[in-house]
């Protein structure tokens, strides 16, 4: 049976899988790197070579990374400020492949992975939010990954929940990324907390200020989720990323707010669910994209 390699390049680590064409996992790797001198690119090339020595020549390789994927599917066309050298890097050429190495945005790939072998399997309409350093997002509508005109579709982390708020990285005022993303925890808490985990732990210990800050963030997330529901009408929304590991501390108040906010014609209610594939969802989605020749 043919094999595929899926690679998900993150900000600090590379997640990679070798899978069969029916999705059976043969090997997975989570390899940290330091973002300097394109160390990540050389590490990916070495991973591919190692996989093929062990598993034989594969039928396809797919890759995902932060940023906007080019319409050609050959590279990331825009990612300012980090992973210097990634913009415009043609992965088919860099890896010396005869077949296309299709490239996707990382959140797009994560949702495709969940749709192939995870929590969104069998769903025609589903959205995903990944609550990490920032907030990523993706949507599948009528069985097709929503990409948009230049690839911006699905960047749900830039939905505005406060038009008077500060501008985020793409100049959106008061985006959900600023309200719940890990990178703003210190600013939101006046320096008291340095990570979402610290904030949630303090909330669970009964720290009143931590509780106020955390529940404000969750309420903002509920407003964002409500907007996604009204625009896309999904069957379910998957909430993943580091903040989702808070479990009931996130999902219970989120669902409580949605009881107040969500439009539920005829009693219809969108399911809010965690991911099934965890950290390798993006790698799985990249492998599936390779299986489809980049025609997602």
Descriptive keywords:
single chain; 296 residues; alpha/beta; Nucleotidyltransferase, domain 5; five-stranded mixed β-sheet; 9 helices; 12 strands; globular
Walk me through this protein's architecture.
The structure is a single chain. The longest helix has 25 residues, at 208-232. The mean pLDDT is 95. With 296 residues, the chain is an alpha/beta fold. It has helices spanning 39-55, 91-94, 106-117, 176-180, 185-188, 196-204, 208-232, 248-261, 281-291, and strands at residues 3-9, 13-20, 25-32, 60-65, 68-69, 76-78, 103-105, 126-131, 135-141, 144-145, 236-240, 271-273. 34% of the residues lie in helices and 20% in strands. It folds into two domains: 3-109 and 279-291, Nucleotidyltransferase, domain 5 (2-Layer Sandwich), CATH 3.30.420.40; 122-275, Nucleotidyltransferase, domain 5, CATH 3.30.420.40. The protein is built from nine helices and twelve strands. The strands form three sheets. Strands 3-2-1-4-7 form a five-stranded mixed sheet. A five-stranded mixed sheet has the order 10-9-8-11-12, with helices on both faces. Strands 5-6 form a two-stranded antiparallel ribbon.
